[in-house]
Every structure is written in structure tokens, then in C-alpha cells.
Amino acid sequence: MNVLLPIAIPLTGALVVALAGRGESGGARRVSAMFAFATFAVTVYLAFAWNAEGGECIRWVISSAQGLGVLSLAVDGLSLPLVVLTGFLGLIAVLTSWEVHEHAAAHHALLLCLEAAVMTVFLADNVILFYVAWEAVLIPMFFLISVWGHENRRAAAFKFFIYTFAGSALMLVGIITLLVSSPLGSLAGGVTAISADKQTLVFWLLAAGLLVKVPVVPLHTWLPDAHVEAPTAGSIMLAGVLLKMGGYGLLRIALPVAPDAFAAAGPVLAVLGGIGIVYGAILALGQRDLKRLVAYSSVAHMGFMLLAMSTGTRLGIGAAMLIMVSHGVVSGLLFFLVGAIYDRTHTREISRFGGLISQIPVWGGVFVFGALASLGLPGLSGFPGELLSVLEGFGRFGWWIAPIGVGVILGAAYNLYAVRAVAHGEPSAEWQGISDLGVRERLIAASFVVCIVGLGLWPGTVLSVTDAASRVLSMALGGGQ
Amino acid sequence: MSILVQQPWIAVLVPATLAFVIALGGRRAVPLTRWLALVGPLTVLATGVAGLAGAGSDPAIVSVSWLAQGARSIAVGASVDALAAVMLTVVGVVSAMVVLFSVGYMAEDPAQARYFALVSVFSAAMTGLVISTTLVGLFAAWELVGACSYLLIGFWYRKPAAANAAMKAFIVTRIGDVGFLLGIALLWANAGTADIATVNTAVGTLPVAVATLAALMLFAGAAGKSAQFPLHIWLPEAMEGPTPVSALIHAATMVAAGVFLVARMWPVFAASEIALQVMLWVGLITALGAAMAAIAQRDIKRVLAYSTISQLGFMFVALGAGQWQIAIFHLVTHAAFKALLFLGSGSVIHSAGTQDLHEMGGLGRVMPVTMVTWVLGAGALAGIPPLAGFFSKDGIIHAAWVASPVAGAVLVLASLMTAFYITRATLLAFAGDFRGQGHPHESPWTMTLPLMVLAAGAVGLGFAGGSLAELLGGHGALEPVVAIVSALVALTGVAVGWSFYRRGPSADTVLETRLGAVYPTAANAFGVDALLTRLFVRPARSFAEKVYDAIDRRLIDGAVNGVGKLAVGAGRLAAGLQTGQIDLAAAMVGAGIVFLTALVIGWGGR
Questions:
Q1: Residue B598, Cβ neighbours under 10 Å: how many?
Q2: What DSSP letter does each residue of B309-375 carry, written as one string?
Q3: Of A181, A425, A467, the CB nearest to B163
Q4: For the segment B355-371, what is each residue's pLDDT rounded down to a tens digit?
Q5: What is the DSSP string of A136-166?
Q6: For B535, phi and psi rounded to 5 degrees?
Q7: CA distance B390 to B410
Q8: For residue A69, which of A110, B244, B325, B440 sits 20 to 30 Å off, Cα-Cα?
Q9: Using CB atoms and an 8 Å cut-off, which of residues 527-566 of chain B contact chain A?
Q10: Which residues contact B301 (CB under 8 A, 6 or more apart)?
């Protein structure tokens, strides 16, 4: 039953907000904040419950008696970190939408729907439910972008929808092929690999949909448009949790059903990851729009994730999870900050900013912090995962990974360039008198900072959770360390 | 005391915690909390002294697993061995003196709380770097001191020059750090561990090629941090930071971390003749080139910055010649006299209100303490016996001579220039009449006391060479021939400098006309910075913008949109089939499903 709550609470909340919250916006946001908080609390409780049961997978099945088992949910070491992350960012997303007054009830209801759908992706214990939830995520996200987004919101929303939908269509074919050859199994309960001759086909069909979501170059162009046009809450959810669905799907389904194909695809995934690291960093450096810069940094960070995963080692898989969680909070913080400055200035153009730290020191200080976190400073959450991806990547691929060094250097370059251009320097007269972060915003910023420092100092909080799962997965690949 | 050695992380935790207290106290509390910033360095110093006292017995190692999946794990650990104890003593003394000096120097700055908090964080990170027992812990601290350096160079971030310099420092050192990281990865892959002691033992069993590559990669990191050619270009600009920061981070401690790293990983370097040769020659180029550049600087801090680069070059020559103990000896003496010179320059700048040597002069009369201590520091740098630099530099010249007579000769030349440029700076600042504006005055005791303490080091540390060598396991005896030659060289440099600069700044013009085109080239540090900036820095952003516009937007996204348009067009065509007849539509859907399923099963079933 506990496993159902992270889905049921936001879904109920969405209904309540949609039905009762119309009229004035204050009611809707307060109700949805309550539900989002309850959801987060439940995910944290789930983490403790999972720990208390000794790290065994916790299940909830509704109709196994009828032999359907479609509504079976489970949480294990692979999904738990992402479930907690979703609970956290779901709450943050509601709090950042505090000043949304246009159709506030609908906005909040859609955010809660989105959270429920993403939760279902991470908690689904069978591949059909996984797929249904995967597609369901698109719908609230589509409306969030197309109604509450910025100037080019409609085009971006359509592009986001069609692009990822096209990817998922291929994934669906892969899933059908998979189901034709093996019965519907429990995802968390140890999936048996399909016969070797079908693995390559199934793997790449699944990967087609999953890799669009990650995203990998050159299937990434939906991302900057969607991120930039989405409202702040949408960007936070998109970068923070939606991108993780790709990496999660690879580990949850593609790897266990087709381990031989995954192992064979290792070099390809590593190359895709490496391209993402370098190319994403170059693009981030080439931006004139601050939000787009942050959006492209996601491509680079997810490149590290893919590189870590492609090693197939136990530490590599743990590192991939670590990078996903870390990127969730770091990109969440950066999108929050970009949203906060946009609310005040109604621009995202880098060249129009400058010296903001002198005018709004709290915002500026947190922005510098976020940039340092994004460039992978030790002590902050990005470092351990990216360090491991380089170490394990080198172990598997040797000097072939050396070119990502360019991405590491450019990672410093684009983040510090953003600091230099936006926060440092002489303050611009245009933004004299803008207000610094308010109490609610400081609370949001502080909670991000706590997460980023906490994860940076004690990455073991995530790695100890993923420990058992990474063992099973690396054993399936023939590693077993 | 010994608890500090048993639990070395206390020396990290104390300054780190105090940094929080200072930051949270903010502007109002800073007159009080800035004195707390002294506690961290004193803890570090106590740890260092306790470590020195207990050297000889096997030091305790405190270690925890930090990143682990199953049995495979990366640990971080801390231990105070002899080398760490020496470094901690240096870091503790210099940072305590710098904090004390800053109380006076930064008294008027509204952002003092941030300043003292960052300096405390730096003490913590530098301590972590020194006591780490694993490469990963060392690298993490290494990056953190870099971040402190970034935040302190850019302390006055409103000034574009400071903000740019901070960014440059971080990015240039990160180029070296990528090498360092790959070196760690190489050792991790081959030795299967990141534990320094284990790696150092295992390196003997590795192929020479692996050791060479690992050593070169680690050296890349060291060269970035320690400003060795061609990665030295960030250090002169780093002088945009507050002067006490230059003394602490960009002269005495952080920039010497590269030398420390090589000493720490010595077996890896000793296993590779090629790596030693590379270090030797890079060190030589740096030592000579930066000494020449120092001659032609007008900004007193830039003289000292190039001097630091040059002296670090000396240390790398010692490393390349296989004498890491002598490099550490010079690191120690240099920390004392260069921190002294930087703080002295801070005292001068504070008083004269300028950094331009041409606008100083005559300060010796009004600032006696500053002048006397400065002269002692300058003498130590020049290598005048019996000041500290004389002993450590002799060791290096001797080692270089043994390794290669050419290297020895180049170092003698660099020493001559060293004596010359520091004599020039001394005379221009303190001799003659005051050429600037305002009324210079001696600095308050918080600033002069650190000068006196460091001057004691600059005078006396040379005699510690023997016991240091004993501690680290090298040999410390002075070679009489080398000692006499280098003392003569130093005195010659001073004499030539005196004969030129006794007449004041006009001697610059004389020198300029005598040297011709060499002078402006040296002033520009041979255009290395300008060249690299033109080649890499300036094109970087426009290249990135072009990639974004041409490749990402036009090519990739264009293709995506093209496919989209194609689909819409095809849809329009297919719309002709939409006749509204349900049975036809149903039949087509059915046929489609059958076709797709057949395709998948047929293809997939192969």
C-alpha cells in the first residue's frame, strides 16, 4: 500500500485542486503544496521503510489474482533514489509556481498529475504499466509548456511531444517484441534475459525511445526548446526528473532483458556519452540565453551518466544513479534561479545582465554556488558521480575517453562564463532596485543547497541504496564485482 | 597535541567550521569573528608541529570508504607523516600571519566577512590536500583550493579585471587538472587503487610506459597549479586579488602544491626518466623566462608574481634532477621569504596607495619596519648568504649541475637575474624620494608583526636544511664550490642592480634602450599569454556560437524540422484517403496492425 501512496496522493491532489481550487489562486496553490508535501513525506518514509526491511524490494499488486498484474508497483534500490528525488522536486515545482495566477488551479493540477505519472514510471513493476506511464507523462508536460510557457511555447510543446512520442513508438514496438518472446515479468524481481538472437533488436528498439529522453546527441534538439519555453516549474521537472526516465529505463528494462546486447552496445553508449559531454559543453558556451545555457548543460551532464552506465561495472552503474540524482538537484537549482531572475527582469538574455551579485547578493551568491556545483566542484553533488564515470570509463575504455577532458575544461568555462557575465562585473543600471530572493525563494534555494552539499559530502547515501541493484545488473553483464 | 596527529581531520574541521561561523556572523560581527580566523591556522600549525615532534614513528592513518559499490571502494583518508608535517607547519604559519596582516589590511573593506570566511575555507582545504592519503581525497582538496583561489582572486568582483582574472585562473589550472584526473584514472586502472602509499609501492611492478604516462599526467596537474610554462599565464593576473591572498595562496602555499604533489608521488616520478627530464626542462624554461619577465615589470606585485613563477621553476628543476627533498627545502624557505615580500608589498601599497614602482620611492624613511623586513626577504630571494634562500637555492643549482651542466648554467643565469630584479624593486620602492601622491606612513602592528615573524624565517630557515633533510631522508650538506659561485653570482646581481637603479626609475629607460627589442618582449612575458589568448580564449566563444548556429540549429534541428515538415506533407496527401467511411478506415487499421506485427515477429524471430 505504501508504494501506491506516492502516486495516489498527487493524483488525488490534482483532482481536488482541479475541482475545488477554481476561482482564486491562493487556495489552489496552498492545497497543491499540501499534497506535494505529503507526497515528499511519503517518499522519505518509503526510503526509511525500505531500509528497515533490509533493502528488500517493496511491492504492491492490485489484481494478481486475476492473473493480470497490470497494476503492480515496486520500489527497490534502483527506483528509490529517483522516487525521493521526484518527491522533492515535485514539492519544489509547486513552490516555484506560487506566483502563477493565470489558471492557477489548472497549472497546479497538471503539476501534480505530472508528478503522479513520473512516480508511476519509476514505481511500475511491469513493462506495460511502465510504458503507459511513460506516455502519460507527456500529456501534462505538453499542456504545461503550451499554456504557461514563454513566447514560442506552442511550437516547443508540439516538438517535445512529437519528438519523444516518435521515440516511444519505437520503444513500443520493442516492448511488443519483448512481450511476444517472454511473459510479463516483474521488473524489480529479477528479469530473465530474452534469447540471445533477439537481444540486439529489442535493445535498440527500446534504446531508441529511452535515448531520446536522456537525451543523446543528435536526438537532443527538443530539449533546449522545451526547457526554455517551459514555465520554471516545468523546466525543473523536465530537467530534474523527466530526463532521468531515460537512464532509468535503460537500467530497469533494456539492460536486464538484453544484457548481451547492452554489453555489446557499451562502446556505442560511451561514444554517445562522450559526444554529449563535449558537444553539450560547447553549445552551453555558445549561448546568449541564460536558460538555454542551463538546458545545454543537461546534455553534458547526461553524457557523463551514459558514460558511467556504459562501463557496465558495479561502480559505473552506481555512478550513473549518482549523476542522475545530482543533476536533478543541480539543474533544479539553476532553473529555479533563472526563473527567479526572469520573474524580475522579464529577460533571459545574458548580455543584458551583469553585476547582479552587487544588486541582489543572495540570488548572486546562490548562482555562483550553483555554477560551482554544475562544474563538478568536490564537496558538492556533481563531483563523486562524474569522478567515478571518468575512473571507471578509463578502466573499461582506456585512453579513448581522454577527449572528454575537453568537456571537463569547457564545463568550467561555460559555468564561469555565466558567473562572469551575469553575476560579476559592474552592475547594470537597467536592473537597479530589483528585489532579492524573498522568504519563500530563500527556503527553496536553501533546500537545494542542503541537498547538493549533503550529496557531495556523503554520496554514500545514494550508493548504499543502489548497492544491491548495481550488483545484480553488473552480474547480468558478466562483471559481478 | 598528539590527538591532532592521531585525528588529523580536526585541523580540517576547525577552520571549515569557523568559516561558517564567520560567514553567518556577517558584517556586524566581523570585528569580532575575524579574530576567529586565526584559530584555524593555529590548529593547523599545532598539528604540523606535533607531527614534526612525532616524526620517525609510523603516523596514524584515519581512513573511511567514500565511494563504494560492494567490495570495490574508493577511500579518503588522512595522516600526518613527515612531509605533511613540514607542509602543515608552513601552511599554518603563513596563513596565521596572513590573517593577522589582513585584520589591518582589509579593515576598511565592507565584505570582510566573506574574505575571512574564504581564507578559513582555504586553510581547511589546503590542510586536506596535504594530509590526504588517497589520490581522490588529494584531488578533491586540490580542486577546492582552486575554488578558494577563484573566489579570492575575484574578491572584488565588480572590477572587470578581477572577475576575468579569477575565471582565467580557474580554467587554466583546470587544463592541468584534466591531466591529473586522467593520471589518477590510469593509476586506478593499473594499480587498482587510489591509495597513495599502495600506488607508490605498486608502481615498481607496472610497465615503465604506464609509470611515465602517469607521471606526465600528474605533472600536468602540478604544472597548472604551480604555474609552470605554458600554464603559468594565470598567475600574473591573479594579482588582482587582495595582496594578503597573493601572499598566502599565490606565493606560499597553493602554488607550491604542485611541487608537493610530485614529492608525494615520488616513486611514480622516479620510475620514469622521461618524466624527470620533462620536469627539469619545463622548470628551467620557467625559471629563466619568468626571471627575465620580472625585470621589466612596473607593478610591484607583478614583479613578485613572475618571481614566484621563476622560483617554482627552480623547485621543478630540483625535482627533475631527482632531488625532491631539496625542492621541498626551497618550498619552505620560499614560502617564508615570498610571503614576506608579498605582505611587504601589501604594506607598501596600503601606504603609498599605488602598485606602480615608478610612483613609489623613499618609503624606507617612513616605513622602517617594512623596509628592513623587505630587504631581508629580498636578500633571501637573491640568495645572499647566510639568508634562507642562499642555502636552498644552492642545493638546487648543485643538483641541476649534476644532472646536466647546461641546466646548472641556466640556473646560475636565472639567479643572477633574480638578484638584479629584486634589487631593482627594492631600490625603486624604498630608496630616493617619494614620487607619488599623498602621505605614506608605517603600517599598524597587525601588519608589521607578521612581517617580522616571516623575516625571522627568511633569515633563519636556511639553517634548518640539515634537519629537514634528515626528516625527509635526503642529504643537506652544502657544496663549497657551488656555494661560493652562487654567492658571488647573487652579489654580482645585486651590484649590477644597484649601479643601474641607484638613480631611480629613469634606469628603466636606460635598460630599455640597451636591451632594444628584448625589453618589451620580456615585459610581455614573451607574448605567451597573448598568443594563447588569441589562439584559444578569444575564438572559444565565437566558435561555440558558430557550432550552435550552424550545426545544432541549422543542421541537426533543421533536419528534425525537415522530417516534421515531410510528415505534415505526407499527412496532407494521406488526408485524401480520409473519406469518412468507417469500414475503410477500420480495414486499413487492421491491415496496418497485421503488417507491423508480422514485420516485427518475422524480423525479430530471425
A1: 10
A2: HHHHHHHHHHHHTT-HHHHHHHHHHHHHHHHHHHHHHHHHHHHHS--BGGG---HHHH-HHHHHHHH
A3: A425
A4: 988 888 888 888 999 99
A5: HHHHHHHHHHHHH--TTHHHHHHHHHHHHHH
A6: -75, -45
A7: 17
A8: A110
A9: 540-541, 543-549, 552, 556-557, 560, 564
A10: B239, B243, B246, B342, B345, B349, B355
Q: Shortest Cα distance from A321 to chain B (angstroms)? A: 12
Instruction: Kindly report the nearest CA distance between residue A287 and chain B, in angstroms.
Output: 7
Q: Is A419 on the interface with B (CB under 8 A)?
A: yes
Burial of B113 (0-12, 13-18, 19+ CB in 10 A): buried
Number of Cβ within a 10 Å radius of residue B10: 17
Sign of CA dihedral B150, B156, B160, B162: negative
Instruction: Please tell me the total number of residues recorded for chain A in this structure.
Output: 481
Instruction: Please answer yes or no on whether A287 and B548 come within 8 Å at the CB atom.
Output: yes
- Specify whether the backbone of A23 is left (phi greater than 0), alpha (psi in -120 to 50) or beta: left
Give the C-alpha separation, A325 to B87, whole Å: 37
The complex scores an ipTM of 0.93
Q: How far apart are CA B137 and CA B78, in angstroms?
A: 9
Average pLDDT, chain B: 89
Q: Is B568 on the interface with A (CB under 8 A)?
A: no
| Per-residue confidence (pLDDT) for residue A64, from 0 to 100 | 52
Best of B66, B69, B549 to mutate (most A CBs within 10 Å, chain A): B69
Sorted by sequence, the CB contacts under 8 Å of residue A170 that are 6+ apart come out as A205, A208, A209
CA atoms of A469 and A91, how far apart (whole Å): 27
Cβ-based neighbours of B279, under 8 Å, separated by 6 or more: B219, B262, B269, B316, B317, B319, B320
User: Which residues in chain A are closer than 8 Å to B166, comparing Cβ atoms?
Assistant: 416, 424
Burial environment of residue B110 by CB neighbours within 10 A (0 to 12, 13 to 18, 19 or more): exposed
From A118-122, B85-89, B286-290, B588-592, the region with the lowest mean pLDDT: B588-592
User: In terms of residues, how long is chain B?
Assistant: 606
> How would DSSP label each residue in A256-275?
HH-HHHHHHHHHHHHHHHHH
Tell me which residue of A252, A44, A228, A223 sits closest to A134, measured CA to CA: A252
pLDDT per residue as tens digits for the range B393-428: 998 999 999 999 999 999 999 999 999 999 999 999
pLDDT score, position A433:
86
**Contact (Cβ atoms closer than 8 angstroms) between residue B62 and residue B7:** yes
Mutation choice for A interface testing from B12, B67, B170 by most A CBs within 10 A: B67
Instruction: Assess whether pLDDT exceeds 90 at residue B523.
Output: no
Question: Which A residues 246-275 touch B at CB under 8 Å?
Answer: none
Q: What span, in angstroms and rounded, lies between the C-alpha atoms of B233 and B254? A: 16
What's the grid cell of residue B84? 605533511
Helices A5-20 and A25-52: crossing angle in degrees, nearest 10, is 170
- A403 contact B CB<8A: no
Which residue reads 545545454 in cell numbers? A296
